[in-house]
Amino acid sequence: MFEFITDEEERGQVGIGTLIVFIAMVLVAAIAAGVLINTAGFLQSKSQETGQQSSKQVSNRLQEVVTVGQVDTANNQIYAVNVTVTQAPGAGEIDLQNATINWIGPSGTETLTHDEASGTNWQFNTTAVKNTDGSNTVLNDADDRFNVNFLLNTTANGPGKLSEGEEVTIKINTMSGATTSIRFTVPESLGQKSAVEL
Q1: Are both 99 and 159 inside the same structural domain?
Q2: In this structure, are 107 and 181 located in the same domain?
Q3: 50 and 68 housed in the same domain
Q4: Are 67 and 164 found together in one domain?
Q5: Can you tell me where the transmembrane regions are (predicted)?
Q6: Are residue 191 and residue 142 in the same domain, yes or no?
Q7: In whole angstroms, what is the distance from residue 116 CA to residue 38 CA?
Q8: How far is CA 114 from CA 155, 174, 185, in A?
Q9: Residue-level pLDDT at 42
Q10: According to the model, what pLDDT value does residue 65 have?
């Protein structure tokens, strides 16, 4: 026997097929949207993290207040250097114990760590000039002032004393990656002074 499909039945089958295709498209679109939203969220968090790190590298810097050299009057040479530093405008908390310093002078380049951290034989230390919380290494207030102290010619790895007219550059690298460069020159004549501004 022959079975005849009426127009209504044919339209019903086409409608069901269209509905199945539509549902499949909605599911695919929902999955794609979920993937896009997750990816966008991940990229946003990564970009925020990168932006914060970049901001710290730019802003968490030190600012030099004054640099003073202690004079060995017997030899007319600088035997110690004290650099007074504070936070640069907009800087966050800076722990000098975690900083490294590159000393670039007449006798070569040295990399120094804080004397409370493990590292090279020649090290720097810090003393508080003005501090709000009693720490000798953490700058966390705009009024904080610390001396970064370098004692010269103390070990085989350290540089010798500085003579008249010699120039030194120090680069202070904080834990956030910010770098502060300070350049100073010993005066041409030290005379009989016990200390000079560099």
Answers
A1: yes
A2: yes
A3: no
A4: yes
A5: 12-37
A6: yes
A7: 45
A8: 15, 12, 23
A9: 80
A10: 94
Mark whether 81 and 143 lie in a shared domain. yes
List, for residues 130-150, the tens digit of each pLDDT value.
988 878 789 988 899 999 999
Nearest to 164 by CA among 71, 67, 64, 80: 71
Between CA 68 and CA 80 the distance in angstroms is 8
Do residues 147 and 70 lie in contact, with contact meaning Cβ atoms separated by under 8 Å?
no
Cα separation, 83 vs 146, whole angstroms: 8
Burial bucket for residue 107 (CB in 10 Å: 0-12, 13-18, 19+): middle
* Tens-place pLDDT, residues 29-38: 888 888 888 8
Nearest CA to 138 among 174, 180, 177? 174
Residue 164: give its domain's CATH number.
2.60.40
Domain span at 49:
1-59
Per-residue three-class SS string for the chain: CCCCCCHHHHHHHHHHHHHHHHHHHHHHHHHHHHHHHHHHHHHHHHHHHHHHHHHHHHHCCEEEEEEEEEEECCCCEEEEEEEEEEECCCCCCEEHHHCEEEEEECCEEEEEEECCCCCCCCCEEEEEEECCCCCCCEECCCCCEEEEEEECCCCCCCCCCECCCCEEEEEEECCCCCEEEEEEECCCCCCCCCEEEC
Q: Point out the domain boundary residue: 19, 43, 59.
A: 59
For the chain, the domain total comes to 2
Regarding whether 193 and 107 lie in a shared domain, the answer is yes
